[in-house]
User: What shape does this take?
Amino acid sequence: MREVIKTVGLTKMYNGFPALEKLTLTIGPDVCVGFIGPNGAGKTTTIKILTSLIKPTAGEAYVEGIDIRESPKSALMNVGSVVETPEFYPYLTPIETLDYLGRLRGMDEEYIRDRSKRVLEQVHMEDWATTRIGKFSKGMKQRLGIAQALLHEPTVLILDEPTSGLDPRGMIEVREIIKDLKKEKRTIFMSSHLLYEAQEVCDWVAMVDKGRLIYFDEVENIGKLMGPKKIELQTVADLTEGQLDILRASEGVVEAEAVQPKVVLLRFDGSNEERAEILTKLVGEGVGVVSFKSSGMELEDLYMSMIEGGS
Ligand SMILES: Nc1ncnc2c1ncn2[C@@H]1O[C@H](COP(=O)(O)OP(=O)(O)OP(=O)(O)O)[C@@H](O)[C@H]1O
Ligand SMILES: [Mg+2]
Assistant: This one.
């Protein structure tokens, strides 16, 4: 397998304190990896090492097989990045900014022009190409940051908390953009506080806490760690004891408890077919079902337990 990003025992010390401790990670081609961890976990430190903004205290880091410490320039030819909140000259427009950054990267005029148009489309900023950046919202600056990262067609895109500090709509926009970028051949490494964000956007999850890697696996395997799912059932009227007993006797149901008037919480460990069967039974019993959905907290519960377990 082509090793697109590789770190071996990567360590960064600040005043005798490890911000990053022996991070060993290998990431293959054309995958999106969510780099998840709480504040101070070492995410930005890792990203700054990978983008040669800081030097590691120990360990190795390679991009497309090129040693970042030995040959930062050639390693970074393959990388586009947005580290922390991107800042731009407020009096320039996106087109002027991309032109300026393209020249700095040694791209020729025509290539810059073609690519600028393309990358602004990719981040849905084509209508703002000639507006001064001073007027832009944080979300627009973040999108322009992604556009500049893509300008020289890097095979690796590294984003440090691309949705952090954005409003819900801005977060969704940036996630959709990243999902679209995954359709092109490229490895994406993005940090986030949110496990559910990584689960939604990425193929793999690497979790760090206190400078150490505590989990690295494909997103589809996260479910296996979670055990029984929580399903919240909301009904028009309270369920009778008999109806609750029918629920409890259903395949896959571990527990069913009325937690509020007209709300029953199920713990469920079965297949999708069994889950569908529960709903069919309820409707057959004449129960008016308002909603029947997985309760959203389970993933973040897992995240918290992993962080606690990793300490
Ligand atoms: N320049 C520095 N000098 C001293 N300590 C630092 C420096 N940069 C980072 N640290 C420390 O290293 C640890 C890791 O920081 P880092 O910024 O990598 O975390 P992070 O995972 O990006 O957190 P956040 O989610 O808050 O952005 C923290 O304890 C931080 O205080
Ligand atoms: Mg950070």
